[in-house]
Amino acid sequence: MLKRIQNNEEGVIFVTVILIILVMMVLTVSILSLNTSQIRVTEDEVKRVQAEVLAMGTIGLTFANQLSGSPNDNIAFTETLGGVDFAVTSDLDPSTDELVIQITY
Q1: pTM of the prediction?
Q2: What is the pLDDT of residue 4?
């Protein structure tokens, strides 16, 4: 059988090799695309966790500010973590004691 394929001049081997190369290219592109999207999702999750930890720290800062001699109901600052700038605002409503912490990045 191998001898018959080697002597075949109709281009079956060429077409088979082209199909194998095409399948390998499609698999490679799909694996690269999957890895790229996973990296993007992981980076977004890291930023979300950093923002959450920063919000928890802002709660402590806000309560410490309220216990100080001159309390302020609004606190705003920026923090850089891992090369990403986080804008933090803390608003305390004195009438309802509702605390809203907003973090944008």
Answers
A1: 0.71
A2: 62
Cα separation, 33 vs 24, whole angstroms: 14
**Cα gap 73→1, rounded to integer Å:** 86
pLDDT under 70 in the chain at which residues? 1-9
- Measured in whole angstroms, the distance separating CA 46 from the mean position of its chain's CA atoms is 6
Reading the block at residue 78, the tokens are 């920026």
CB-CB neighbours of 88 under 10 Å: 20
Which three-class secondary structure string do you get for the chain?
CHHHHHHCCCCHHHHHHHHHHHHHHHHHHHHHHHHHHHHHHHHHHHHHHHHHHHHHHHHHHHHHHHHCCCCCCEEEEEEEECCEEEEEEEEEECCCCEEEEEEEC
* Cα-to-chain-centroid distance, residue 12: 47
Long-range contacts of 64-72 (CB under 8 A, 24+ apart): 66/92
